[in-house]
Amino acid sequence: MFFVEGGVFLLFLGGFCAWLMLSDKIAARRRRREAKSFSAAVNQLHGQSISDLVKRFGPPREQFTGSTGRSLYVWRCPPLDGFPKIEGSAVVTLTVDYEGQVVAADWQRR
């Protein structure tokens, strides 16, 4: 009887460990897919007018103007309509030149 109980326990333990590893791999694949679609959406912002983006996404959470005429706009999402859904929180940072055109766009998951 001891060997049967031990065998069932080891089988359960092996199945549980396999389930944990599989769920981690599935979650990692989902995060990579989310990051890829979010990066594609952020990369499409290059060259667009900041006034159009402010109308589209709403006012930024933070805005800084530098001495060279460039500005930095920061949005934190969620909630930020117009971007793909992403697990957790994301910070979108846009660098805008003196003409109001986006010259650099970046994002980071938090």
List the helices and strands and how they pair.
Elements: H1 2-43, H2 50-57, E1 62-65, E2 71-77, E3 90-96, E4 102-109
Walk me through this protein's architecture:
The structure is a single chain. The chain has 110 residues and is an alpha+beta fold. It has one domain: Beta-lactamase Inhibitory Protein, Chain:B, domain 1. Helices cover 45% and strands 24% of the residues. It has two helices and four strands. It has helices at 2-43, 50-57; strands at residues 62-65, 71-77, 90-96, 102-109. A four-stranded antiparallel beta sheet has the order 1-2-3-4, covered by helices on one side. β1 (62-65) and β2 (71-77) form a beta hairpin. The chain is rod-shaped and about 80 Å long.
